[in-house]
Description:
Elements: H1 3-17, E1 54-56, E2 63-65, E3 69-71, E4 79-83, H2 84-100, E5 125-128, E6 135-139, H3 141-149, H4 154-167
Antiparallel strand pairs: 1-2, 3-4, 5-6
Amino acid sequence: MNLSYAREDRKKLNRKARGQSDSKKTENKPQSTVKQILLFSDKSVPTKNTDNNTKRCRYCKKTKPLSEFDKHCHNSDNLDTRCKKCRTKIFDIQRELHKTAPKKPPVCDLCGKEPRLASGELRHYLDHDHKTHKFRGWLCNRCNTGLGCLGDNIDGIKNALEYLERTL
């Protein structure tokens, strides 16, 4: 798939999400059998309103005053994407999962390798279903990040597998 088409489609989605008209005419694009997948379509919808006094929580989807969001240095607006209420709820769920989770295995439940960080520290990450809040396993950083980047669902994994099968 031509990446410039993917960029144009993402720009079009962003303009549409902001309520702007699509002034560019649709070009004659070649038909492709490759499915375009936007794994994080939620990120294409702006969370901060143009009046700069409110922001939309990515979990509860409610627009709230900026004072309802904790600071977060890794985001462009220096605010967390989750409102304080949702963040507290998420931490409570994670705390409970850690209490009830089985003992950490010596290896990652996904790749079977020892979960070592670049620093040499042994580190497991608790993996859970974000909808049902059920424990799934103990993962290394790479598998936990990879699973999240693929949408944390079976469709994302299938799409990645189909891609690799097509391109190998």
